[in-house]
Each structure stands twice: as C-alpha cells, then as structure tokens.
C-alpha cells in the first residue's frame, strides 16, 4: 500500500514511524512532513491545508490510504474532498469534524444526547458575556468558539481574570475563532485523553493517556499545545472505561449518525474524571499531540490494519493489542513558548540518544544539513518501559543529550500517575 500522511508535527512523525512497521506498506509520503519524518517517508512540499493540491497528489501518486493528522484540514473539508475524488481517507467529514471545529456545536450535541459535560453558555458579544459572569460568580473557563491551537482557553483563577479573558477574546485577537465565546463551569478532577477509533457505528478505544497542558511544572502557567504525555493512565479504571463507552462515546456516535454526520476516524475525548463521574471537556476530531507519541510506542497491532477497518466500517469484532508496560513522551520546547519564541537554533545530540528512545520531530527544519528549531514544540522524546518510572527514566535519558539554545521542558511528566500509585 501507498500511504499519504497529512501534517508535519510530532504526532505525524509517530504515526509514520508506526505505519512504517506495517508489512502492508510499501511507500509512505508525508505532506509537508519534517526532517525527522524524512528519514522514514518521502516528504512532499504541499501544505496540510492545501486540499486541492493534496487531492491531485494522491491521485497522481496512486495513494491507497490518506491519514490526516491536524484538525484544520479536517474542519475545512479534506475528508469530503477525498471522498468525492474516490480516494480512501482516514478522517471525519467536514460536518463530523464540527465536534472539534465548533465548541458550540459540540455542546449542543452533548446536551441533546444527554452526555455529561460542564454547564455552559455561548455569547456573540462582550456585554452579555460580562453580565453572565456577574450573575454566575463560581469558577469558570472562558473559551474562544473556533480553532485556536489549544490557546483559546482561559481557566480563570478569579472573576477579574474571567472578565479580562472575555474582553480579550472579543477584541479580535483570535480572529474568527473569537467571534463566539463559550463560558463554562470549571470542572475539578483528573484529566484523561481517550482516543477512540470510530467507523460510524462501532467505537474502539485506545489506551488512556494523559497530556500535560500547562507550560510549568506542577501544572502551572499558561496552557500550551501539550508538554508531554504518558500512557496508560492508572486511575482510569475498567469501571470508568465502561462508563465512558456507555455514557459518552457510544451516545456521541449515535447522535452524529442520527444527525446525518456519521463519525469516521479517530475521536479524541478530553475528559475530566469528576466526583460525579467522567465529564467531557472537549472533543477533537484527530489524534492528540503529544498523546499519540507514547501510544504508538505501546501499540502492538498493525496501525494500518486498524485504520483500514475504520475506513471500511469493519471495526466490529476488531481487537487492539498493546505491549505491556507504559510509555512516556517529553516535549522539548523553544525558549519563550507558548509566547513568542526564537527559531533557527541548531539542535545538537540527536545522534547520541540511547537505543530504544524515539525522538519525534515537531518543529524542526533542515538548514544546510543542520537540524534547527522551527516551531514552539520542537521535539518529543519518547520511550517505553516495563512500567511508567522505567519509561520516564529512558525518555529523560534521551532528553539530557539533546541540546539547543533556550530549550525548556517539564521534569515532572507523569507526576499525577506516580503520586497516585
Ligand atoms: P480545551 O481546548 O477545551 O480542551 O481546553 C484546554 C484545557 O483547559 C483542558 O485540557 C483543561 O485542562 C482546561 N479546561 C477546559 N475546560 C475546562 C473546564 N470546564 N473545567 C476545567 N478545566 C477546563
Ligand atoms: N494534546 C492535546 C491535543 O492534541 O489537543
């Protein structure tokens, strides 16, 4: 099979790494890819959002399966464009991708289907939103409705911070994403990412993982795209997994099918395990980044087979096999991230990483044969071990040998699982 992966971050590097191990695969292309991916796949200089050129490429290169990493092309309708061209694609249609593309759409669907989530209200202008805050003095989270790369969310520490967030979002800083603002009740508990393959009818959950969204150790500072992840999550018990399938995943799939938008692809449910049970924080219409990096190291089954079963609506009866133990990924970020950061810093030590540690490239570029930083999240250093402490030890051994100016990372990836044990 000839595979095309759309995207060029750490998640796509991990997907390519796993697919390259499939006996079904003869050739992998990645658009646009990155210098790490280029060691495993042929990188194609086409932007992930240039849907027309991607369709043309897939036709010319006789691609058998296209796999989409990021949300933006999915929300823009890459799934529909490939379907119309008769090209198999792993990823939801534009209508189904609204689960991520519009928080208001997701909230309304959950309300209709009785899916547990935070109470919320949606606003089109600042005045009404500020009046709502006056009337609801409890802890809140303020969110820009559209896509804002994980940064359009403010978990307000106090009422003044909530008011500032509302004003900021309506000021146009997030462009169209901030035209509508959602204010929701702040949930308390442990956060878990559940990625599930969905073929329109059947849900097949992958192992639970946990991201580390805040930039600082001890979960402090502003939100980022994710500073590291591990899997599995010890406090996600089989009983909780059962509740999540019954009360969240299956009802979403049913509601999407009933609305005429059957969901095919991977559904990412960001959950809060509250005292009242699991509740949905958000849905994403794609694999998580960095959750995918440890998950791919743990996955024993052939990813390409699982994706084909998803695309062909044959997930019923399919089982997923995992390696025992745990895996963890530590993100190395550029100095300043998630604020403004420098690019072009040479990266040293990539060849010194111990065997068994995978360094997935996210924001890197190749300049005159030298790998340099080219994004906020630069690398995700990922390893598997017999348990989480072993996986973390391996990953941090890799972290230590990689150097670039301004590099920062969290030293406490996995801390919630370690303190729960
Ligand atoms: P989102 O992009 O909606 O997932 O929000 C990003 C992050 O903000 C989540 O991963 C949570 O850590 C936090 N967050 C979002 N909504 C809530 C909420 N209702 N209660 C508490 N934390 C939240
Ligand atoms: N790790 C968070 C996300 O992929 O949205």
Based on Cα principal axes, name the global outline. globular
Return the average pLDDT rounded to an integer. Answer: 95
Poorly predicted tracts of residues: none
Approximate strand percentage:
25-35%
Q: Compute the gyration radius: what is it?
A: 20 Å
Biggest sheet: strand arrangement: 3-2-1-4-5
Blueprint (SSEs and pairs):
Blueprint: E1 2-7, H1 10-19, E2 27-32, E3 42-43, H2 51-60, E4 65-68, H3 71-75, H4 78-84, E5 89-90, H5 94-101, H6 103-113, E6 120-123, H7 126-135, E7 140-144, E8 153-155, H8 159-170, E9 181-185, E10 190-199, E11 203-205, E12 210-211, E13 214-216, E14 220-223, E15 228-231, H9 238-258, E16 264-274, E17 277-284, H10 292-298, H11 303-311, E18 326-333, E19 358-361, E20 364-367, E21 370-373, E22 377-385, H12 388-401, H13 415-420
Parallel strand pairs: 1-2, 1-4, 2-3, 4-5
Antiparallel strand pairs: 6-9, 7-8, 7-9, 10-11, 10-16, 12-15, 13-14, 15-18, 16-17, 18-22, 19-22, 20-21
Adenosine monophosphate is lined by residues 118, 141, 143, 150, 153, 155, 184-187, 191, 213, 223, 270, 281-282.
Please, could you describe this protein's structure?
Strand 10 and strand 11 (203-205) form a beta hairpin. The chain has a five-stranded parallel beta sheet, sandwiched between helices. It has a five-stranded antiparallel beta sheet with strand order 12-15-18-22-19. By secondary structure, the chain is an alpha+beta fold. Helix 5 (94-101) crosses helix 6. It contains 13 helices and 22 strands. The structure holds adenosine monophosphate (AMP) and glycine (GLY). Adenosine monophosphate binds at residues 118, 141, 143, 150, 153, 155, 184-187, 191, 213, 223, 270, 281-282.
